[in-house]
TrEMBL record:
GO MF: DNA-binding transcription factor activity
The keyword RNA-binding belongs to this UniProt entry's keyword annotation: no
Pfam families, per the entry: K-box (PF01486)
Superkingdom of origin organism: Eukaryota
Positions of the K-box domain: 26-116
Protein name: MADS-box protein SOC1
GO cellular component, one term: nucleus
InterPro entries: TF_Kbox
Coiled coil: 26-109
UniProt KW keywords: Coiled coil
Length: 162
């Protein structure tokens, strides 16, 4: 039992000898905190300069360095923006291809494939789809009638009939 107690006491003395005293540890932590505070103040001053604040006491060299840093940052930002735009364009093109494929499938399914192709080819050539082709494709009435509803069923005389 005596041996166990002696070993315990010897072990605790070794631990205290190896560990720095708490006072030394506290001083180290205070020094580290002060260093971090200085670093934070420097970063805040740098941030203010980048935002264009407190530039009155800057030399020409500092202002030129700041300008170069901002130009590099802007070029990086523009490159990233262009990359994002290109990705979005590719996604939209892929979506357009998928929609075109779906449109073709639905057109084929409902039997209006040939009629839509003719209308599409006219539009691609820069032409306007004729009213006869529109009436084949759609049941929507597009003529303008003026007057009471009962006269709408009567067809107005054409110029050849007059």
């Amino acid at each position: 039992m005596h041996e166990t107690i002696e070993r315990y006491q010897q072990y605790t003395k070794e631990i205290q000898a190896n560990n720095p005293p708490a006072e030394h540890n506290m001083q180290h932590l205070k020094h580290e905190a002060a260093t971090m505070m200085k670093k934070i103040e420097q970063l805040e001053a740098s941030k203010r300069k980048l935002l264009g604040e407190n530039l009155g006491n800057c030399s020409i060299e500092e202002l030129q360095q700041l300008e170069q840093q901002l130009e590099r940052s802007v070029s990086i930002i523009r490159a990233r923006k262009m990359q994002v735009y290109k990705q979005q364009i590719e996604q939209l093109k892929e979506k357009g291809r998928a929609l075109a494929a779906e449109n073709a499938m639905l057109s084929e399914k409902f039997g209006v494939h040939g009629q839509l192709q003719r209308a599409g080819s006219n539009e691609e050539r820069g032409g306007v789809v004729g009213s006869a082709e529109i009436s084949e494709i759609s049941d929507v009435e597009t003529e303008l009638f003026i007057g009471p509803p009962e006269t709408r069923n009567k067809r107005p005389p054409s110029r050849n009939e007059m």
